[in-house]
Amino acid sequence: KSCQKPVDKYIEYDPVIILINAVLCKAQAYRHILFNTKINIHGKLCIFCLLCEAYIRWLQLQDSSQNTDPDDLIRYAKEWDFYRLFCIASLEQTSFFIGIFITLWWMTPEMLKRKSDFILLLKALLLSTYGKLLLIPAVIWEHDYTPLCLAFIKVFVLISNSQAIRVTLNLNRILPWFAIFFGLILENGVVCLFQKMGWDV
C-alpha cells in the first residue's frame, strides 16, 4: 500500500546495495528496511549513537587539558562528566522526538491513532539516527575541519529523520520538515535550560 508498486524490488537486492540506497536517503530503501525486514536493533543503535555523541562532547571538554599519561586516561575514564553528558544527550534526543510526535499528532491525528503507529514511528526515528555513527571517524581522523564535519553529520541525520517520518506515515515532504523544525526548537530549549543551570553542554 505504501509504495504503490506490485512488489518491493529490494527483496532481491543484496543487503550492501540496500544499505547504500538507505545512506543515499532513498524512500523505497527506507520502506523496505522498515516494513519488509525484521531488524530489531533500534535500542542498541540508539544507545551506541548516544555514547558516540557523549564521547565527542566529553572529548571537547578534555581538550583544554590534554595529557597522554596513561594514569590520566584511567582517571578520565572514571570521571562523571562523561555520564552527565550521556544523560544530557539522551534528554536532548528525547525532547527532539517529543517535539516531532507532538507536531505530527497535532497536524495529522488520524495518522497516529493507535499505539502501534507511535511505536513504528519511534523505531523509524531511532533507526534513522544511524548517521551519528559517523562521529567515530570524525574523532579518529581529527583535523581542522571537525566542526564542519559535525555540522554535516547533523544535517545528514535530520535528512534521514525526515525520510523516516515521510515513509512511515506516507506524508509529503513539507510536514516531516515542519515536525523536525519543532523538534529542534524543543531540543534547543532543553539545551538553553541546561546552560542556564550552568552545565557545559
TrEMBL record:
This is Protein ARV. It is a multi-pass membrane protein. GO terms for biological process: intracellular sterol transport; regulation of plasma membrane sterol distribution; sphingolipid metabolic process; sterol metabolic process. It is found in: Endoplasmic reticulum membrane. InterPro entries: Arv1. The keyword Metal-binding does not apply. It comes from the Eukaryota. Mediator of sterol homeostasis involved in sterol uptake, trafficking and distribution into membranes. Pfam families: Arv1. GO terms for cellular component: cortical endoplasmic reticulum; endoplasmic reticulum membrane; Golgi apparatus. The keyword Transport applies. The chain crosses the membrane at residues 82-106, 118-141, 148-168, 174-194. The lineage of its organism: Eukaryota, Metazoa, Chordata, Craniata, Vertebrata. Coiled coil: none annotated. It comes from Tyrannus savana (Fork-tailed flycatcher). Keywords: Endoplasmic reticulum, Lipid metabolism, Lipid transport, Membrane, Transmembrane, Transmembrane helix, Transport. Belongs to the ARV1 family.
